[in-house]
């Protein structure tokens, strides 16, 4: 079965095999995956704007719009339109294009899949306009640099990133006894504590929904990160470099807080940092992350024994993600059942472009929306589903087949479908599918049959 290893490495662990990739991996596929885990994570080559520049530009545009409008309501509308159309939308387009191109071109598909996995774990959705120009930067700035390092570092970077602070409404969250709340309360306009970030940190980002926390812990976590905000602003929320993380002491809840039975003494911004580092090494977090990793790479119903081994590797390495992923690579189960996962639309698109050797055009990222998985728009903090039940409906399958037929009609006789199947799937390509392709009436139909085959729909 060693000749199957290359196909599993490229398709289950990676984003799909490009022509020649299976031959290059050969019988050393497992060694290649381990080697990639030891290398620095790749960066996107395209010149993209840092998040603080995007936010600073939006802030400046908002102030200009407000100054130009006599009616404050007009200023609000003008700001929303100008920010979205003139600043955020082009940034989103550049980010998604660069991401797609890198996914198709990379020779380290395993690492890029991990970037996308963690980006979905820490999901933000561009259906909230404030995140439209920042979601790509969250992945580039907070996730990609830490994807092979310690989870605590990624966790801290994500929770402090402007995209997450805006998406989960933490930038203006005020402790009930904070300086600003007391002052505003005397004027009858007291700001409130927002629990969104605190709740998602516990429920989605660390412990998991069954992680043993209570509503009291949610509230404590929310108070620990009061004051975690973004520089710029007006009035009482002035201060800090526009667009960058800024700790606002006036919003922070004073006094000690108790989270999961552990008391955190008053220490300003360090309170939240200490709490996140504690959560990163909690056994429930290890189990939650291991379950998601095994589900993503192996099976919709993760084998408990493998989940335990991955969680143990995570805890023994003090939350090192590379070591947890190495446990996956070393697991016999991971290599024993090819084509166990139904591809998401994103998986399908990436693998098709790679198998066909297609170049990514300027407007090609729109394809993700057409097939039901627009980039950075999962719709909720829970991210996109990672089981077949979320994607294998008849309507969704029809959209894939329609695109496959359109792509095949364009490419025509420029591609040999049977050869592409062997190059992309190796020994996991079945004799039955090969015969169906061989009997096609022309090259275009053969290519469509390959792209719509049961083997190509799975990884």
Task: Write up this protein.
By secondary structure, the protein is mainly alpha-helical. Among the domains are: 51-107 and 120-280, no CATH class; 283-335. 55% of the residues lie in helices and 3% in strands. It has helices at residues 2-13, 21-25, 29-37, 51-68, 72-105, 109-121, 135-143, 151-159, 162-167, 179-186, 196-205, 215-224, 269-280, 283-297, 304-316, 321-330, 345-356, 366-370, 394-411, 417-425, 431-438, 443-451, and strands at residues 228-230, 245-247, 257-259, 262-264. The protein has a two-stranded antiparallel sheet. Strands 3-4 form a two-stranded antiparallel ribbon. Strand 3 and strand 4 form a beta hairpin. The mean pLDDT is 94.
Question: Brief description of this entry?
Answer:
With 459 residues, the chain is mostly helical. It is built from 22 helices and 4 strands.
- Tally the beta strands: 4
Averaging pLDDT over every residue, what do you get?
94
In terms of DSSP E residues, the strand content is under 5%
Distance between the termini: 17 Å
* Residue windows where pLDDT falls under 50 for at least 5 positions: none
Write down the oligomeric state.
single chain
Classification by helices and strands: mainly alpha
Q: Bin the helical content.
A: 55-70%
Radius of gyration: 24 Å
- Shape by Cα distribution: globular
Give the helices and strands as they follow along the chain: HHHHHHHHHHHHEEEEHHHHHHHHHH
Largest sheet: 2 strands, antiparallel
Question: DSSP helix count?
Answer: 22
For the largest sheet, list the strands in their spatial order: 1-2
